[in-house]
Amino acid sequence: MRLNTSDAEFLDMLEKRYAGFLGAGTSSEAEFDFDIDLRPPASSHSSAAADVSVTHGSDRWLLQRGDFRAEWEPELRRGNIRQSANPYSIDAVLRIVHTLVLARQGGFLLHSASAIRSGKAFLFAGVSGAGKTTISRLAPPDITLLTDEISYVRKRDEGYMAYGTPFTGELAKLGENTSAPVAALYLLAQGPENRIDPMAASDAGRELLANMLFFAADQEMVHRAFEAACDFVHRVPVHRLTFVPDARVWEMIG
Amino acid sequence: MGRKLYIARSPRIAARKLGEEMLVMSGHGSTLFTLNPTATILWQAADGATPLDEIVEHRICGEFEVQPEEALRDAEALAEDLAKHGILRISEEPIAEHTRSQQPAAAPGKPMPETR
Fold first, then answer.
1. Quick one: how far is CA B115 from the chain centroid?
2. What integer pLDDT is reported at residue A50 of this predicted model?
3. Structural domain range at position A240
4. Residue A190 and which of A37, A46, A53, B32 are 20 to 30 A apart at CA?
5. Is B21 touching A (CB cutoff 8 A)?
6. A113 & A77 share domain
7. B12 closest CB neighbour out of A204, A219, A234
């Protein structure tokens, strides 16, 4: 994805925010081009807390929230974003666009921490407060952290790959820009002991769906997300991971 | 003789059996449903051509020890409930294949709540 802005200060902020995930910036390298117009969108409410709206017109997606308005034309691989010079709006737009791109490929963004151990990726999903940041913070030195907040999951061959993302949670630490095949998904719960329990496929599917990032008001995309979740739980082991907040939990992973 | 009812799966719905449970996702409102065993039978048999009383007689009465009249009453109520959620269509006429695939697009939805 290539982001174009004439504002040097905003560009500098983007470069710092997404450090480690930057390419050379050539057109041929980018799958999508976005022009950024640093003016607040004409809106009656400019709060980032406003509901996001993601709708599909004849040839483009329209992404709107109080603090941004963006259009994306998948066929032309171009888009534009109108927002003020803040990192939160661009972060939200990037996440939404990636959910749309991934849905077409059988992948998804997931509210989860993810990490690589011995060449395999492990996902730790849960709502806010479930322990994503905690388990990331407790990771021992042999762990490569991909993200503590939003995992990028893409279908590949008969399985799924997890990729690092620059989308951070409370840990405020960028993930590594690398990837590995997903070996397991753990749905987090905090409890009095560390334990791993099997999950029924239907429960796993429901919880996976509940933790997927999804914004589009579009029937086809809803069905794609559903199919992706069902396929994922069919191919990848999903467990309930109950843990106490200390580093011993990592002795059970990998 | 009572009225004949026909049921057809809505094309707005995506469905998958995971383990022993049938999950269906409605494009309308991005709502996730888990079907109970009886609803799963209705969903699987809802071809638009087989009358509901035949589905009940052959698929439900055989599976569960229940009187046909009572089973049909329950199935009609269940089918109407599923239709209310946009999962099934009900008609007093057979529902042709082409009309089953020409439904309007779903209304805008929100991230996926679960309904059971």
1. 15
2. 66
3. 108-252
4. B32
5. yes
6. no
7. A219
Predicted TM-score (pTM) of this structure: 0.85
Same domain, A144 and A95: no
Instruction: Report yes or no: A210 at the B interface, CB cutoff 8 Å.
Output: yes
Q: In this structure, are strands A78-83 and A33-37 parallel, antiparallel, or unpaired? A: parallel
Residue A43's pLDDT band (cuts 50, 70, 90): low
Alpha helices in B1-116 (DSSP H): 37-45, 52-55, 68-84, 97-100
Contact A160, A236 (CB under 8 A): yes
Q: A70 and A152 in one domain?
A: no
Confirm or reject contact between B85 and chain A (CB < 8 A): no
Residue whose pair of structure tokens reads 């279908």 in the numeric block: A155
Report chain B residues whose CB lies below 8 A from the CB of A210.
Answer: 112, 114
Mean pLDDT of A69-84: 94
Give the tens place of pLDDT for each residue, A88-103: 999 999 999 999 999 9
Q: List CB contacts (< 8 A) between A127 and chain B.
A: none
Statement: B6-95 belongs to CATH 3.90.930.60: yes
A128 plus A241 within the same structural domain? yes
